[in-house]
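RETRY 2/3 - previous attempt timed out on the joint model. Re-submitting the same 192-residue input unchanged.
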Amino acid sequence: MSGRRGLLVVISGPSGVGKDTLIERLRELDPRLQYSISYTTRKPRPGEKDGVSYFFASRQKFEELVAQGFFLEHAVYNGNYYGTPAAAVEEARAAGRDILLKIEVQGAAQVRKRAPDGVFIFIAPPSKEELVRRQELREGAVPADDMVERLKIAETEMKHASEYDHVVVNDDLEPAVAEVLEIIRTARERQT
Ligand code: 5GP
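RETRY 2/3 succeeded.
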């Protein structure tokens, strides 16, 4: 491994746009991408494992970690805290490994200030109607009142798309994944 510093890739996008599936596929196709596991105070959904999807923490624990400067960024989303551990990101980058953050827009703005060399990608839905449809498909996983709130947040989040280096429309999964991979490939090339 050369002295190359790992890339920091930040992916945002409204709830229901398909970020999880897209990131899963990205990592299948590009195993060099390490995923940053966030901390959150929200309750685990069925099937989510502590230390895999997220590190699930109490509010008190989260606030202690904030006070210790543990997070690269943190934000409140739909009444819960979410945060990215700073050390894991720094260690990966220092070791030359590329690291991917899936975070919402307020957190991404904080990361941009602290790591302006990051690659910031916003995943957008083809239309608002399609976003609503995809959110409804997730019904069961996300409670109904939570869904209404997430749609409201989505509208606000869409207004931030232009702050990102790239906006990728997730109409079909595979072309969207290919587009993100190409963005990452170009950013890697620029580094060498
Ligand atoms: P969910 O509850 O659906 O897993 O995530 C809700 C939102 O929080 C998503 O937009 C997700 O990308 C974002 N998120 C997940 N982890 C973090 C984090 O560490 N920091 C910030 N700022 N947002 C996060």
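The mean pLDDT is 93. Closing ticket.
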